[in-house]
């Protein structure tokens, strides 16, 4: 059993709160990514699990035992570090066997395990090399071998791929995933790269300012972000956002009106009491379409005009930055509050689409994929303006905590 | 051929003009010339006193008066005389033992403190380092009287009297520890702080305690730093004068060090110049060897210790 | 046996493991603090305390009654000169007073030594074959025992054997026996001090030179600066803070000068401040000796402050 649980874990450095009453349950064999911007507290969380940092308050348990005050060596964990942290005065064999030797394993057993670990990470025949003679990728493999050789209950990985070049990083990503599935060891993986988190994890915990914003499987975080922070952090390029106001039958933004009818009814989170509420409307670039393109969505919003600003072809698609033109609806009363960021809209279009810069186009949103967030709290109000929504939203589950 | 003198003079004038022309037209080469002149100058000024010692030592005593810059005669047996008739080796042995004791004490205490200053974030670190700097700033004489009282057994604390260590290695090793410890700590702090972060964390996750990580990972990795500190402390103690002079009565059996081995010649046997020179050369030998073997360490140690503000 | 030890020690290790950063740091510096308290802080306090007492030349203990700053006052006003072997400071005969001699030696030695050290650093910072041999040779004067440094020059200026003294005497630089003339002995002490300390300050300056970004010189070359201009406009300003640090260490050390004096000319011809303390101490005047020692420390402190102000000004001017 290698489940890890944090209960109200709290860490304060002088007057900075690094981790604020975090409660997190990681199941046995799970691959969990802690992701967030730098300084959000994800590394501190990992350090508390490892015991390198002791929490100011709260408890941490591994495999059912309370280890809150135990030093790292007494927790059944192994760790892979961002700067790899191989001991330069030892060869590969000694590096991998370091933990086993400290625990007075039999010589034969150490040999067997080191051989096995080396085979798993494809380092056979390199055991007598010095770390200096190895490439970056090989060094990180040694780091991983050093972790797996101990057969711990939990793997902790602190941005292990951050120092590798882009190509190697993608390759190692798959290898770590494969390894984790093979060994079936609970893994906590810290990264600032949301793409890495999305591709690798069973579940991701998005952290901001020491608080978990959402903890859910990657696709759920993508399609049903619990709040505005998660919505903009997950997904690249980022989600488009507009300020708007909920009216009787629609959400009014500067450039268009998103009708809530005809399906408006009790199933919606947006009830009558929401009338007049300031909201933020979010839509991902791939959910914005050119009018009259082949793949126009089933339930499009009203269209509006825009002028193409810049085109960025990336190969399989082209990103078009467009400037919405003055809307058919009268200017919203709080239009002045709109920042520059909302002036521009990012649209993902098919690379074969023949549009040019400065061209005037008509775009629509896929109403099924429009997210609405409360302006004040940032919490998600609804994901999609169509059809009966599933019963209560994931946003209100226990892991989700407000961003302020 | 017929008139070599005038040709010579003409040639000389020609050479001078050529040199001047060359210096003006080729500034890069002028700088190179200056560089070699400077280099040769520094090295010969540095080495000349050593050379003087050497020729003094090997010149037989009868020919010493107003001797020139080349030895008149060669008498290497003087080095044996110094060792056989005067126990110079005994003084040198005492110096080396005391320097060794000091090095060990400084490294043990300095490793712990240097590690703390280099790798542990604790409150009051800055002021404490300043305090260390302050110690090395006070002249040795400000410590002399209390240390003399303490180490010669005349200081009473309540009913206890401090042990009389005068004429033992400790009466010098303790003051030397005080003198050398700040520099040791500065050197080791620099080295420890250069060890990459994470190695210690890795060791702890793998199963050591924090102290275990210090001894298994940090100290082995900073071996060059430890060696540097050891060499600098050793040289520092070996060359020290003040406490070596004040803390013994000058008898080699009472742990008098090299200082007395040399001064005895000056104070008791005033005319034995060649013996003085030979004794000095032998006294230089241990540090000269150390400097030749460990030049890089010394340069690194002096600069890292010196530049730490 | 081992197991019992382990069992006894492990709770202690566990406690250490659980200490927070602050306490862990304090634990590690505790041995240092203890040792220095006994060997450095206590002696400093004690010296200061003794300096406030009277001398007792006839009692069982050389320390008499408490007198406050009377010793300091006597030294500074010159009243103490009658009991000292040479004056601390005297207007009538400045060259025989300890303060003037020490400050004079320091001043001249630091100026000459720093200029030479800068030159040596520039030369040894260049890449050339046998550079490490040159460095090794040049470090030697610093590394050899102080007593031998003194002895070398004592032998070099010994009129009966050295062929150096006579020509210099004929030129009027030295007197017939430089070892007994105060003025000549001072020159000799300055020479020894420069000779042994140039390598030290050169090494420090070299570390500063090594940290200068090489590409700055490329920029200067492209702009058409000559080597001398490069030195004056780039090297000198950038290396100035390091030179000042080196000069601070040089000055502190020269102000404490004693060993080379004792080993060459003797304290009676070149009475430095430390000589004065030692002689006074030997006369059993412990309180007076302590007061002079502390005054010396204060004077050094004052000089270091002047440097630090310079240093600050230099750093601020660069900003």
From TrEMBL, chain A:
Q: What is this protein called?
A: ABC-type D-xylose/L-arabinose transporter
Write the Enzyme Commission number(s) for this entry.
7.5.2.13
Which CDD domains does the UniProt entry name for this protein? ABC_MalK_N (cd03301)
The answer to whether the entry has keyword Magnesium is no
Please note every region of biased composition (Polar residues). 394-404
Q: Which GO terms describe its biological process?
A: carbohydrate transport
The organism that produces this protein has a lineage beginning with: Archaea, Methanobacteriati, Methanobacteriota, Stenosarchaea group, Halobacteria
Matches recorded under PANTHER family:
MALTODEXTRIN IMPORT ATP-BINDING PROTEIN MSMX, TREHALOSE IMPORT ATP-BINDING PROTEIN SUGC
Q: Which family does it belong to?
A: Belongs to the ABC transporter superfamily. Carbohydrate uptake transporter-1 (CUT1) (TC 3.A.1.1) family.
Which Pfam families does this UniProt record tie to the protein? Answer: ABC_tran, OB_MalK
Subunit (UniProt): The complex is composed of two ATP-binding proteins (XacJ and XacK), two transmembrane proteins (XacH and XacI) and a solute-binding protein (XacG).
Q: Where in the cell is it found?
A: Cell membrane
Spell out the InterPro entries in the cross-references.
Answer: AAA+_ATPase (IPR003593), ABC_transporter-like_ATP-bd (IPR003439), ABC_transporter-like_CS (IPR017871), ABC_transpr_MalK-like (IPR015855), ABC_transpr_MalK/UgpC-like (IPR047641), Mo/tungstate-bd_C_term_dom (IPR008995), NA-bd_OB-fold (IPR012340), OB_MalK-like (IPR040582)
Q: How does it sit in the membrane?
A: Peripheral membrane protein
Q: Which UniProt keywords apply?
A: ATP-binding, Cell membrane, Membrane, Nucleotide-binding, Translocase, Transport
Function summary: Part of the ABC transporter complex XacGHIJK involved in the uptake of xylose and arabinose. Responsible for energy coupling to the transport system.
Q: Name one GO molecular function term.
A: ATP hydrolysis activity
A GO cellular component annotation here is: ATP-binding cassette (ABC) transporter complex, substrate-binding subunit-containing
The ABC transporter domain is annotated at 4-234
TrEMBL record, chain B:
* Residues in ABC transmembrane type-1 domain copies: 92-294
Q: Any keyword Transport?
A: yes
Q: Name one GO cellular component term.
A: plasma membrane
Does the record's keyword annotation contain Chloroplast? no
GO biological process: any one? transmembrane transport
What compartments host this protein? Cell membrane
The way it spans or sits in the membrane comes to: Multi-pass membrane protein
> What are the entry keywords?
Cell membrane, Membrane, Transmembrane, Transmembrane helix, Transport
Sequence intervals crossing the membrane? 33-58, 91-116, 128-148, 168-192, 213-238, 272-294
Give the protein family. Answer: Belongs to the binding-protein-dependent transport system permease family.
Q: What is this protein called?
A: ABC transporter integral membrane subunit
């Amino acid at each position: 059993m290698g489940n890890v649980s944090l209960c109200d874990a709290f860490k304060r450095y002088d007057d900075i709160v690094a981790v604020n009453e975090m409660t997190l349950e990681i199941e046995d064999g799970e691959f969990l990514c802690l992701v967030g911007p730098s300084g959000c507290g994800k590394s501190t969380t990992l350090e508390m699990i490892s015991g390198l940092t002791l929490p100011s308050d709260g408890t941490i348990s591994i495999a059912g035992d309370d280890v809150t005050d135990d030093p790292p060596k007494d927790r059944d964990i192994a760790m892979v570090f961002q700067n790899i942290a191989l001991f330069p005065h030892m060869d590969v064999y000694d590096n991998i066997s370091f933990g086993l030797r400290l625990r007075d394993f039999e010589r034969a057993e150490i040999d067997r395990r080191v051989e096995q670990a080396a085979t798993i990470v494809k380092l056979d025949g390199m055991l007598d090399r010095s770390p200096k003679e190895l490439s970056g990728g090989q060094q990180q493999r040694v780091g991983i071998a050093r972790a797996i050789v101990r057969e711990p209950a939990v793997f902790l990985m602190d941005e292990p791929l951050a120092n590798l070049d882009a190509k190697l990083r993608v390759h190692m990503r798959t290898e770590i995933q494969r390894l984790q599935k093979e060994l079936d060891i609970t893994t906590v993986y810290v990264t600032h790269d949301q793409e890495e988190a999305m591709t690798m994890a069973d579940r991701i915990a998005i952290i901001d300012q020491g608080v978990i914003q959402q903890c859910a499987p990657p696709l759920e975080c993508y399609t049903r972000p619990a709040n505005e922070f998660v919505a903009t952090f997950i997904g690249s390029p980022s989600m488009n956002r507009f300020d708007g106001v909920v009216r009787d039958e629609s959400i009014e933004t500067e450039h268009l009106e998103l009708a809530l009818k005809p399906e408006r009814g009790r199933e919606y989170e947006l009830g009558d009491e929401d009338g007049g509420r300031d909201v933020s409307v979010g839509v991902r670039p791939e959910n914005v379409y050119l009018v009259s393109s082949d793949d126009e969505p089933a339930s499009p919003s009203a269209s509006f005009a825009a002028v193409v600003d810049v085109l960025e072809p990336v190969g399989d698609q082209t990103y078009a930055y467009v400037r919405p033109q003055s809307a058919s609806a009268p200017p919203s009363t709080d239009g002045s509050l709109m920042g520059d960021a909302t002036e521009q809209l990012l649209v993902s279009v098919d690379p074969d689409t023949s549009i040019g810069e400065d061209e005037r186009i008509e775009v629509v949103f896929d109403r099924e994929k429009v997210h609405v967030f409360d302006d004040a709290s940032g919490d998600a109000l609804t994901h999609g303006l169509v059809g009966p929504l599933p019963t209560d939203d994931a946003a209100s589950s226990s892991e989700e905590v407000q961003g302020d | 051929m017929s008139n070599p003198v005038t040709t010579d003079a003409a040639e000389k004038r020609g050479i001078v003009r050529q040199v001047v022309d060359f210096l003006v037209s080729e500034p890069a080469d002028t700088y190179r010339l200056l560089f070699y002149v400077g280099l040769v100058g520094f090295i010969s000024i540095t080495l000349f006193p050593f050379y003087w010692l050497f020729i003094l030592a090997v010149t037989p005593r009868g020919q010493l008066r107003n001797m020139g810059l080349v030895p008149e005669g060669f008498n290497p047996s003087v080095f044996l005389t110094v060792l056989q008739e005067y126990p110079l080796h005994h003084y040198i042995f005492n110096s080396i033992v005391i320097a060794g004791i000091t090095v060990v004490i400084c490294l043990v205490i300095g490793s712990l403190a240097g590690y703390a200053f280099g790798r542990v974030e604790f409150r009051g670190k800055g002021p404490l380092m300043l305090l260390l700097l302050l110690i090395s700033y006070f002249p040795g004489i400000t410590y002399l009287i209390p240390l003399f009282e303490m180490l010669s057994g005349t200081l009473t604390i309540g009913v206890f009297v401090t042990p009389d260590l005068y004429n033992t290695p400790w009466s010098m090793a303790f003051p030397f520890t005080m003198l050398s410890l700040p520099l040791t700590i500065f050197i080791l702090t620099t080295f420890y702080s250069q060890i990459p972060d994470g190695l210690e964390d890795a060791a702890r996750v793998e199963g050591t305690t924090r102290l275990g990580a210090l001894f298994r990972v940090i100290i082995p990795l900073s071996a060059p730093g430890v060696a540097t500190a050891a060499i600098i402390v050793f040289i520092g103690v070996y060359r020290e004068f003040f406490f070596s002079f004040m803390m013994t009565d000058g008898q080699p059996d009472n742990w008098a060090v090299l200082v007395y081995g040399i001064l005895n010649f000056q104070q008791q046997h005033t005319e034995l110049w060649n013996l003085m020179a030979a004794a000095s050369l032998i006294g230089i030998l241990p540090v000269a060897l150390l400097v030749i073997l460990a030049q890089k360490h010394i340069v690194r140690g002096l600069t890292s210790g010196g530049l730490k503000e | 046996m081992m197991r019992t030890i382990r069992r006894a020690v492990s709770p202690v290790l566990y406690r250490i493991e659980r200490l927070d950063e602050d306490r862990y740091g304090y634990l590690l510096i505790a041995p240092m603090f203890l040792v220095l308290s006994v060997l450095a802080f206590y002696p400093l306090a004690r010296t200061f305390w003794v300096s406030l007492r009277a001398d007792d030349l006839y009692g069982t203990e050389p320390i008499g009654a408490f007198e406050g700053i009377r010793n300091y006052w006597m030294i500074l006003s010159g009243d103490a000169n009658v009991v000292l072997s040479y004056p601390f400071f005297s207007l009538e005969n400045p060259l025989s007073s300890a303060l003037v001699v020490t400050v004079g030696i320091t001043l001249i030695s630091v100026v000459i030594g720093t200029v030479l050290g800068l030159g040596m650093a520039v030369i040894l910072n260049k890449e050339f074959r046998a550079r490490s041999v040159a460095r090794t040779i040049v470090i030697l004067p610093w590394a050899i025992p102080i007593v031998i440094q003194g002895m070398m020059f004592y032998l070099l200026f010994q009129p009966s054997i050295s062929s150096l003294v006579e020509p210099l005497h004929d030129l009027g630089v030295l007197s017939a026996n430089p070892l007994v003339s105060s003025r000549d002995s001072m020159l000799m002490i300055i020479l020894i001090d420069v000779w042994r300390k140039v390598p030290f300050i050169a090494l420090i300056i070299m570390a500063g030179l090594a940290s200068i970004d090489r590409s700055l010189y490329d920029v200067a070359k492209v702009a058409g600066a000559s080597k001398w201009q490069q030195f004056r406009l780039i090297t000198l300003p950038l290396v100035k803070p390091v030179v000042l640090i080196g000069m601070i260490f040089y000055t502190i050390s020269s102000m404490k000068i004693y060993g080379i004096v004792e080993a060459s000319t003797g304290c009676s011809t070149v009475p430095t401040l430390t000589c004065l303390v030692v002689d006074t101490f030997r006369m059993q005047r412990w309180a007076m000796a302590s007061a002079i020692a502390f005054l010396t420390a204060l004077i050094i402190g004052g000089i270091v402050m002047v440097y630090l102000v310079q240093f600050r000004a230099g750093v601020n001017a660069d900003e």
